[in-house]
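Q: Predict the assembly, please.
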Amino acid sequence: MDDGELKRYFAGRLPIRVAEVEAARDAARGAGWTGEPLRTFHRLAHSLAGVGATFGFPEVSEVSRRLESLLESALASGAPPVEGEVDGLLRQLRELGTGASAEAP
Amino acid sequence: MKMPPMSASSLRRILFVEDDPDIQVVATMALESLGGFTVLACGSGTEALSRFDEFAPELVLLDVMMPGMDGRATLAALRRLPSGGVPVVFMTARVQAHEIADYRQMGAVDVIAKPFDPMTLAATVQAIWRSLHP
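A: Predicted assembly structure:
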């Protein structure tokens, strides 16, 4: 096992992980940014932040961490997050996923 | 970085409880290939509890933030098992001093911060084990 092997593995997984977070975003939006769907969305953003760092993808981790922080505020305040910011961060994650997947040997 | 062969008293079986499938893969790979451990990965506290006796782990690595039964609840349930006194190490991104004190208060012997380095995870676990068996 080496760093290259780990990066190749996760580059293949990243688009799937981002799609899961996007689906959670859609569910949270559908639930009015409340309840279990919002908590699930937050948990998946938190997980992706940790996984990205573990596999050597600091940009994925950084963007996910910002998303996690937005959602943490929404959970704490009860106010919905700014949807444009949420969508913008998810767009960045999708681009990172597409790029990583294309670059993986 | 392959670790030297282990003695008869060394750590062998690790139960790893983690809901994230990719973290399961990388940690299992790291612990088995670099540490020489036998790892049973479970995706939830419920699964870990149901397979605990069959696997008879010597150490448990336990994620804190999991859906349903989280790490804290899993540890509490584990301690109620007749054979549930094995050392438990939490793995979490929440590692402020008061949080670590809280984990130890609950009975965790140590905490491994996330994100962890897969290349050094096995050595970290081995060091924790040695600290418990000087």
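Chain A touches chain B at residues 1, 3, 6, 9-10, 13, 17, 40, 43, 46-47, 49-55, 61 (CB under 8 Å). The mean pLDDT of chain A is 93.
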